[in-house]
Design goal:
- With about 190 residues, this protein is an alpha/beta fold.
- It has 2 domains: about 130 residues, 3-Layer(aba) Sandwich (Rossmann fold), CATH 3.40.50; about 55 residues, Guanylate Kinase phosphate binding domain (2-Layer Sandwich).
- The chain contains 8 helices and 9 strands.
- The strands form 2 sheets. It has a 5-stranded parallel beta sheet, with helices on both faces. The protein has a 4-stranded mixed beta sheet with strand order 4-3-6-5.
- Strand 5 and strand 6 form a beta hairpin.
- Helix 5 runs antiparallel to helix 6.
């Protein structure tokens, strides 16, 4: 099964994925995301493979990628072999504009992570903590607004293939984990604590 976790920067998508892998070892895999984006200063993104535009283009021409998208001037992709795992549930961290494409994949579950205007301040706090330059922070906040609008636009897709969660603080992760376990993992004999 493919679990697509969609939402804006800072909402907790990566954290949710880390928790799923830690709490249910052997059940989930998070494929590396190939990207032409340069790593941020002191970034230790274990879920990404930073490559050049040329290398990205070569791999794309070879048909290696099962999902390709452009985001804020950089290219991102997942290898088809990694997405199509038959031994584990696959977790993908996605931006909301790509939901129509990802919803076409077989056995997909979409977990939307949105927030209210009050929760937007939580996202701003998390983005500031990354230490980006002021102009990058401003761009990221604009992108957050676009992502929230895209997620709202695709709310029907999220409902059809999963569930939308409104994030106000860090406590929602346990709610999402329980929902995933109750609705998907218990059917294959996995229980949560």
């Amino acid at each position: 099964m493919l679990f697509v976790i969609a939402g804006p920067s800072g909402i907790g998508k990566s954290y949710l994925m880390q928790q799923l892998i830690a709490r249910y070892p052997g059940e989930f895999a998070a494929p590396k995301l190939y990207t032409t984006r340069q790593p941020r200063q002191s970034e230790q993104a274990i879920d990404r493979k930073f490559i050049s535009q040329v290398s990205f283009g070569e791999l794309q021409c070879q048909g290696k990628f099962g999902f390709v998208g452009e985001f804020v001037g950089n290219w991102y992709a997942f290898a088809e072999d990694d997405i199509a795992s038959e031994t584990k549930h696959v977790l993908i961290n996605a931006w909301p504009a790509m939901l129509p494409v990802l919803a076409q994949r077989p056995e997909v579950v979409i977990i939307g992570m949105t927030t209210s205007s009050a929760g937007r301040e939580l996202l701003a706090h998390r983005i500031r903590a990354r230490g980006d330059a002021p102009e990058v922070f401003s761009q990221r906040m604009q992108r957050i607004d676009i992502d929230l609008a895209d997620l709202a636009e695709h709310a029907d897709l999220v409902s059809e293939h999963g569930k939308m969660f409104v994030i106000q603080d860090d406590s929602m992760v346990d709610t999402i984990l329980s929902w995933i376990c109750d609705n998907y993992l218990t059917k294959v004999g996995v229980t949560h604590d």
